[in-house]
Design brief:
There is one protein chain. This protein has a three-stranded antiparallel β-sheet with strand order 3-5-4. A two-stranded antiparallel sheet has the order 1-2. Strand 1 and strand 2 form a beta hairpin. The radius of gyration is 64 Å and the shape is rod-shaped. By secondary structure, the protein is mostly helical. Helix content is 44%, strand content 9%. It is built from nine helices and five strands; from the N terminus they run H-H-H-H-E-E-H-H-E-H-H-E-E-H. Pfam families: SMC_ScpB.
Length: 263
């Protein structure tokens, strides 16, 4: 039955019957000889090969890691603390007892008793005597022009007899050969009569340039210098050579003090 409104629609529905050729089943491509089982077997082989490759890669990485860990690691050497460099100190003087005794007799010029020397060096009298004997042996072995003699219980440096002529040419043989200025003679007399004379007493005497004059007398071996009992004060005395030059056996042979007039 035909609908009357169909004339107003711009289209119509047509029922089409397909041809026999269009409904025919699709043809499969020609068989290349691969079955489903074959494809599955090949797939399993590929998966297995991939797993083996991954396993070999892991083994190689482990081997490299082991090699690295087996290499010896350089141990850090302990750093030693720096030791500050000290400046070289001056070597201590190796001075023995004999050298000290020699210096005391040489520099002081005065005759010193064995007890006095022992007290200064802080040793025994026997040690002093042994050391002085040692010095005299050394002097003889080295042909020194001097030696240490013991006179009236006191040690002093003395000149060997063969060198007396040399000393006489320098210092003179007697009072006439010893040329001293009047001021020097006055200071020498002051020391001779008031010995041991302290430095303060010499200055207090009022003699002009007394300190300079007494140093000249010391250089001429007419006056000796020593230390007081306190170890600080300076004392002046006449030397053994003073007695020799003036022909005196001892200080008791000096003229009386009242016979001399000091300025």
């Amino acid at each position: 039955m035909e609908d009357g409104s169909s004339s107003h629609r711009p289209f119509s529905v047509v029922l089409h019957q397909p041809d026999v050729e269009e409904t025919a089943p699709l043809e499969m491509p020609p068989d290349d000889g691969w079955s489903v089982d074959d494809l599955e077997a090949e797939y399993l082989k590929a998966v297995e090969a991939a797993e083996q490759a991954e396993l070999l890669s892991e083994i190689a990485i482990d081997a490299v890691s082991d090699e690295v860990s087996l290499e010896p690691v350089a141990e850090e050497q302990p750093v030693e603390p720096e030791v500050p460099v000290e400046a070289p100190s001056e070597p201590a003087l190796d001075v023995d007892t004999a050298q000290v005794l020699e210096a005391l007799l040489f520099v002081g010029g005065a005759a010193l008793s064995p007890r006095r020397l022992a007290d200064v060096v802080n040793t025994s009298v026997d040690e002093v005597e042994a050391r002085i004997d040692e010095l005299n042996r050394r002097y003889r072995g080295e042909r020194r022009p001097y030696f240490i003699e013991l006179e009236d219980g006191h040690y002093r440096l003395a000149i060997e007899s063969e060198f007396e002529a040399v000393r006489s040419r320098v210092h003179g043989q007697g009072p006439r050969d010893v040329r001293l200025a009047p001021d020097a003679l006055e200071v020498l007399a002051l020391v001779a009569y008031q010995q041991p004379l302290s430095k303060e007493e010499l200055v207090a005497s009022g003699k002009p340039e007394a300190d300079s004059i007494v140093r000249q007398l010391i250089r001429r071996d007419l006056v000796t210098i020593s230390r007081g009992e306190d170890g600080k004060s300076i004392l002046y005395s006449t030397s053994p050579r003073f007695l020799e030059l003036f022909g005196l056996r001892s200080l008791n042979d000096l003229p009386r003090a009242e016979d001399l007039r000091f300025k």
